[in-house]
């Protein structure tokens, strides 16, 4: 059982949980992930590590409600417990000394960028971070990344804050500012990671993405998380989650992520129906 | 001996394909005694030698014949900690029953069903007696993996007076018994009861604990104070055919399909949150017990057509006779001498067809089985929306990668001295599928027994071998085929 120490809403339907997990935190490194299970009937869900407080043994996880499981998790409160938090899983990100590094996060891919920025800084790199969102109100982890990065760049699709455009708009500007870029890592929605891969492909900049395919056990046993990288089948849970962005088959990845869309919709509709009833009852009483 | 072998009553095929309840109902006490009386109680029984954990078969059967069912269960438990499981999933027809003297003229004694009967009797009548463990030795053993090998080692070491902790990566102990073998063949409550028995022996079970990530083997030995470690992590990564279209939606590894259905109870979706996709036309590739389990699950999930697609003939199939029989009863179609060459999908990436080629059998290959050869130009399409690839596993690299000095063979299996099951690292032992490649529950348990005896001697500083068993010398663990079909 893993206790939720506190929880706060970062923006609508996105919550930050700080979970007590001393042993796990002491072993975890930037770029790894955990698998959470809420209760006996729950799914095993892989989640990126959004922060590690090594001194206090606290794990930060950011969850966006996209379906039943994430919705139910986001209903948990401080003092509640996750039945299982397994990890650290996967290989840590490459965080040796490269030189000039660009870390890119989009949506709930922003929090896992944070420990990577820290680790790259610790390794003696110059780290610039780009975060992007649809609009100003959906930007998260701005403060954390501002304090750790050498420079924080922000892009919003609607231009309500920072550069008007995508994270790649900023990336392309940085690629042209005269200082060579030695390392790029991007975490976020698949279309964003693909766009980053395309942006750096021609210039052959060392670029990595952290993949989040469907997964069950997280230790290599089930083979659900297979992705094609460089023409070969890899298991994201043991061979990744970070892969060379220029070798990933993003089409296949996108397709496989849709495997359970129908079932997910059934479960989410049932959840929302029940959730609606509960809210109605709450307001009545 | 004219008495015919007793038949276990079981759910009718048309009924059982609509549920996940166990198929055979087990024997009645009268049936058990009747079956036990068929045993000739041979002076020099061959059945014991056929059993990897040397269950005292005639002795326990004699107790059954006398109606002493709980005593019979205890007799089995002298050498086998998991009788309710082994009675259900052991390949008896290739082990104890095949060598039964009665087989020559009649049918063998139903050793498996009797083992199952007495274990169930003891449990259902609350007559399980927790044996007294030996006085504490003050030594600590860590077991990595709560599957059949690890559970056996844990039980034996606890009885010898050692403090035992099992570390399991999944959230429930049991390994393949929990994630792999379906409820209708091995109810989860039975695995839970056997694990509970271990806990009453004083064994501590830590779930959701991934060794190699949370602690390494070295940390267990050097920092956590364990005096020896047993690695029973199982077979590991699933094999695929390496043919086009393998990552289309609808193509599963057997491990994923089974884990979703069994451990995560995907068949109860949306009551349980884990979904499983099971279409109307399902092909399962392979001929082992894993393949039979998968194909029988597909029927229960509502498939109209479920196929076993196997490249040799039924004679070469590794699956237990009973599983093949049950599958056929449930309407599973066997497409033998057939091999897939390509998976075909629609524009959305969903599997729609599988292209297969017909095979013929040539001369025996290194496995002793006749080699399948493709018949040129015999390609044809099977319409399928789900394929489950059940062609075995290769070893999981997690522990070898994080344990310096731990030798593995070219398939990544841990190499051990098979007299002691000790690896190249002193104090680190291994057994089960991580050593042999995919095998059976009972072989894993057998390896566990050997390891437990050696770990005991290692921890107490005794000579590793008591009396060297000479006849064991010709076995070579590291030469075994790695790709054999897994599970009992």
Protein described:
- The complex is a heterodimer of chains A (285) and B (488).
- Chain A is of the alpha/beta class and 285 residues long.
- Chain A contains nine helices and 17 strands.
- Chain A has helices at residues 22-27, 68-74, 110-122, 142-148, 167-175, 190-201, 236-239, 250-257, 261-284; strands at 2-11, 14-20, 33-37, 45-48, 52-53, 58-64, 81-82, 84-89, 100-106, 126-133, 151-156, 163-164, 183-187, 207-210, 226-229, 232-235, 242-244.
- The longest helix of chain A is centred in the last third of the chain and has 24 residues, at 261-284.
- Chain A is globular, with a radius of gyration of 19 Å.
- In chain B, strand 3 (140-144), helix 8 (148-159) and strand 4 (163-167) form a beta-alpha-beta unit.
pLDDT averaged residue by residue of chain A: 94
**How many beta-strand segments of chain A?**
17
Quaternary class: heterodimer
What does the main sheet of chain B amount to? 5 strands, parallel
Helix content of chain B: 25-40%
What share of residues are in beta strands of chain A?
A: 25-35%
Structural class, judged by helices and strands of chain B?
alpha/beta
The greatest inter-chain interface is formed by: A-B, 42 and 39 residues
Strand order of the largest sheet of chain A: 12-11-10-9-13-14-17
State the distance separating the first and last CA atoms of chain B: 30 Å
| Share of residues in strands of chain B | 15-25%
Q: Give the termini distance of chain A in whole angstroms.
A: 32 Å
Biggest pleated sheet of chain A: 7 strands, mixed
What percent of residues of chain A adopt helix (DSSP H or I)?
25-40%
Shape of chain A: globular
Can you give the mean pLDDT of chain B? 91
